[in-house]
Structure prediction request, 258 residues.
Amino acid sequence: MRGLSARDYERMLDLATAVMDTPAPTSPWPLVAGELAHSLRGTMVLLSNVNGAAGTIDAWAPEWIGSLPLNTLLRKGLDGGHPLARHYARTGDQSPLAVTDVVDMAAWRRTEAYATLHETVGVVRHIAIPLPCIESGQFRTFVVHRDGPDFDDRERAYVRRLQPLLVSVDRFLRQLADWGARPIDAVTETNLTRREIAVLTLLADGLTAEAIGRRLGISGRTVHKHTENLYRKLAASDRLTAVLRAQGLGLLPGGSRA
Prediction:
């Protein structure tokens, strides 16, 4: 049976880098789901978005899973007392967890959620990788489903290492959505790239170069290079001036274009 390798993480890192280097990326989540299925030998990988009693499946892998009534399966899982769903909804925890981290196998087998998923897809092992919540009472998480042995220590370490990378991609996509409502002429006028705007936004939040690098999955040296480009394009000599000029152009909150 194939085990995890360093290349499994590198493939996901390459995917995240490609997303953040693309001017207008499409949703990367189906590709992320596919990588998770590959690296963790998942029969089914779902990105669930649950808010209170309602929920949707926003991405999945492999493709054939899309022929199943995924939102109905999610609803049955929630109503059937899926232990991971109950745990995340009740606690707001953001830790990657396997279902057996929350309940023992005997208790899991007694739930309606177990019966539904086992009968429909034939999977009994689940591990979740949460993404940041947008509002209170919501949880969003990738769940890898498979049959056979439970997730071992190496696989659990992999999802813990992977989670910050996926969180960075998620934040980046949200920033892109926010920038979409900002003045197009200001972006064109300054000739800022998407990555430079990402760095600018985090500079305005007061993050250090090292922290920005961790958030965006790039090196501190690359952050400094983007910062130099920002200063040049905004005719600024320091962080404060760059942020104030960006605010004046309407590129950042706190100012408006004259």
Remarks:
- The chain has two domains: 6-163, 182-248.
- The chain has a mean pLDDT of 85.
- The first helix runs from residue 6 to 20.
- The CA atoms of residues 124 and 174 lie 33 Å apart.
